Amino acid sequence: MTPTEKMIEAQRQRSAAYKEADDFYNQQNAYAVEISNLRKQVGLTQKQLAERIGVPQSTIARWESGDSNITMKNMEKIAHAVHKKLVVTFK
Hints:
With 91 residues, the protein is mainly alpha-helical. It has a single domain (3-82), classed as lambda repressor-like DNA-binding domains (434 Repressor (Amino-terminal Domain)). Helix content is 71%, strand content 0%. The protein has helices spanning 3-14, 16-41, 46-53, 57-65, 72-81. Helix 1 crosses helix 2. It is elongated and about 45 Å long. The mean pLDDT is 95.
């Protein structure tokens, strides 16, 4: 574990609010990575995906950077646009 990872883990253990925020941003980042990987896998640019689902390219960029929350409805639109099925699981 790196010194930064140790510091983050220590802060997570000290503060429930920090842990909650860290979990939230980790999940946002996971969504961002999945959206970006899917788009690249199907060979689309951000602009092309945006056109298919009816949002500005800047919205795709924000989703892929984790800077903006994405709704389930928009995740469904992405799946439909690339002929995939959105599957949600609880662990």
